[in-house]
Amino acid sequence: MGDVQTMRDRPKEKLRGRDRRSLNLSTKLTAAGKRHREKVARKSDAIKLYQSRKADVVAGRKLPELRNSKVVTLSELIDDVLEFVAHHKDNRSYTSKGEIVRKALGSKPAADLTPQELERWLRTRCKTPATANRYKAFISLCYREGVRNGKVTVNPARLVRQRKEGTGRLRFLSREEYDRLHKVIAARFPEHLAEFVVSVHTGMRLGERYSCMWSQVDLQRRTIELTKTKKWLRAHCASQRRRDEVD
Which CATH number fits domain 74-159: 1.20.1280, 1.10.150, 1.25.40, 2.60.40? Predict the structure, then answer.
């Protein structure tokens, strides 16, 4: 389980002053495969500390971190995630969430954050269940990458309760509202007029519109084939509007 090294175990050498009473305590953690060393002034104190640490190992309790060991902060885990999603299509959203989380929790040691602390922060920061779930997912991703990179061993975000999201509000633009929006966009942002018309008459999401290729468009049938939707299902969007409205 462990072993204790004293001055008796070492070759005899001339010791001076406090070194005569110094003793190195070494406890080997069989589960992690690492050696935990602490220096204690007196032999009697070292024996007591060794017995205490051995009891902790038997009981499965985590040994305290040494003062000279590197402390991994949540900010470091965020940096790893932003590097991981650098080429993701939703990279801007990850970056935005990362900076907000970094400002609030980035300086905290990643191993010390508890599910309760995360719950409290989500409750004060997020106004809707959907937003809270997105931030929870981002923090969980940070810890998953940290576990994969060997920087942390647990993911406290997994124990944070998922909030129930509503079905949302389904609302359609009236003909008068559509005409007013169409007129304003045509006057101020004519380069975005086609985007507005396609989104209204097909219901395509932003990512679906910007990733759409001409090979997915059938002008004869007035349909757009979506090969990658939010749920990764193949779908077809049909428009009843005249084709010259988006030309």
Answer: 1.10.150
